[in-house]
Amino acid sequence: MPEARQLRPAAQDQHGQDPEIRTAAAAESRVAFPQNLREDHAMTPTRRALLAAPALLALPGAACAWAPEKPVRILIPYTPGAINDALGRLIGERFQDALGQPGLVENRPGASGSLAIAATAQAAPDGHQIVVANTANLCMNPFLFANTGYDPKRDITPVAVVARVMNVLVVKADGPIRSVPDLIAAAKAQPGRLTFGSSGAGSSPHLAAELFKAKTGTDITHVPYRGSAPAQVDLVAGRLTMSIDNLPNALGHVQEGRLRALAVTGSARDPALPEVPTFAELGFPEVEVHVWFGFVGPANLPAPIRDRLAEAIIRIAEAPETAERITRAGATVWTRNPAQMTTLVAQELDKWGGVIRGANLRIE
Fold this sequence. Notes:
Layout: E1 5-7, E2 23-25, E3 32-34, H1 45-51, E4 72-76, H2 83-92, H3 95-99, E5 103-107, H4 114-121, E6 129-134, H5 135-139, H6 141-144, E7 156-172, H7 180-189, E8 195-198, H8 204-216, E9 221-224, H9 228-236, E10 243-246, H10 247-255, E11 259-264, E12 290-298, H11 303-318, H12 320-328, E13 332-336, H13 338-359, E14 361-363
Parallel strand pairs: 1-14, 4-5, 4-6, 8-9
Antiparallel strand pairs: 2-3, 6-12, 7-10, 7-11, 7-12, 7-13
């Protein structure tokens, strides 16, 4: 058995940065914004599209048995700017209408998203704290880290999934690689010489590329970055060969002609890039990756509380105004109730556990 490669997380995107971001209520919103970022935090296209949605009317079914007695804290496991953050704020700012109490968003990054999940796992199961969860922090981190502080099958309660994105394989637009067969041929001709960038060791773009390598029999060297943006800059500049990033992160570069999209990791083509084939169309059906985003609470969350939160969250996500902004941001509205989310987590743990063990990956 080969010795596990120790990966030092020199880069993190949606999978964690150093924490200690304080939050305070924003004057113009019911949602708490990071105090130290309120002045100079740049609004990314993803955040701008999602947060532009108008307020919703009160949701049907509000007169249920359970209602929060105080604001609901929504932890975001990453720093502001990525789709995790934007989705959490979009849902949270509509809690007042949906549940009668505001959602207070708090960014708590660190340990590739594990800190916020662990904090919520330890919270009181009373419905007043939930956390934005995704494929990575629930179904990848437990295999990458020796101790995340939580067991996703034991220590959390799945509440609802609201959206998902696929990844896209991109290369420099004016470079020599013009197709997936070109890339595979170049990689096999020069084992270990080609490079792929990711937004951090253990991130979903990293593991999507590891899955691609495993299914195509190629050896391509990983270069981790501190987020997607710098990786995309180096790819555009020709300092990297490729990346398989979350589609919203690469979409602008593709649309503006700086990067060429070769394939998407979805089960069907993405409406934002209808001319780009899926990996399945190219003969690699197992290279399928969707990064989904949802909400979980502590273990032992009573069913009436869980179901009331799920109803509100799903109705907010499916409202036409919200759905339009999610689509414009490069994601797809994809809702799942508590039972469906529980099944999804179990399936994804099986899938990514195999990928990570097969690549012999560990993060210190």
